[in-house]
Structures are given as C-alpha cells and as structure tokens.
Amino acid sequence: MQIASIFFTTRLSKTVSFCKTTSADVMASVSETMARLSAKPNVKATMVLDRALNTILQTSGSFASFRPLDAPRNSVSTVSGNDTNSAKEEGVEEFASMISKFVHSAGGLVQDLDTEDDMKLLRLRTKKHELVIVPDAKYIFVVVHDTPPA
C-alpha cells in the first residue's frame, strides 16, 4: 500500500496547492480525490477535517470498526432509524477527535525535534487497518484501508 500512500500524498498536495482560488474549487478537487481513493480496493473509509475548527467536512465509508470498547452499545434494537444515525455520527465524531489529537501530538513532536521542519504524512498501522493521514495547513485528510497480509 506504499504506492497508495505516495499517490494520496502527491494528489492531495496538488489539490491543495494548485486550487487556491476559492474554497468551493478546493472542496470540489478534494471531493474528486476522496471519491477516487474510496473506489480503490481495501479502502474502508475516508475523511476530511477542517484543521482550525476540528470539524468534519466530508466522510465516506464506515468508521464502525473504530468505536472504542468503553463506548455504550445498544443491546436493544430500535425501530427509529434516527438512533442508529446518531450513534454512527457520534462514532465518526469521536474518530475525528482522536485523529485531530493524534495529528496535534505528532506535530508537537516534530516541532520539538526541529522547529524548521514540517510534518507531511502520518501512517498508523495496526493488525487490522492502516491509517494514512495527510495534515495540511487548512485540512486533515484521512484514508483507512485494510492492512495487507504479511
């Protein structure tokens, strides 16, 4: 998946650096890139966060497998679809919050190591998934994909 990481970094860097005319142009390019990445095999989810506001701008796929173990789980199924949607939204918001904290912490480490250096890419690999995170000045881009067998 290293090729996907390189493509992801290169494509998003071009999207952000070459489309600075309006935020609508940037978001259109980001949407196009995220749709292309979502269509790749083994990609489970994508997310774009506003870095300054820590808000979710766009998501695709499922973040259900990232729900913490201590989060409340409904043992009773409900008829209303609203409860399911709000639980999914809470899970996505919690995931976004964790990503934001991780990026902030890693950025602090980079600044502590060398104040003239910038963080360009984070890769977090677990037994099940790999997260490729590209922090930009305005956005944080996240792609979650399955970890290929070793």
From TrEMBL:
- Indicate what this protein is called per its UniProt record: Roadblock/LAMTOR2 domain-containing protein
Q: Which family does it belong to?
A: Belongs to the GAMAD family.
Q: Which residues form the Roadblock/LAMTOR2 domain?
A: 30-145
Which organism is this protein's natural source? Answer: Hymenoscyphus albidus
What is the top-level taxon of the source organism? Eukaryota
Q: Which InterPro entries match?
A: Roadblock/LAMTOR2_dom
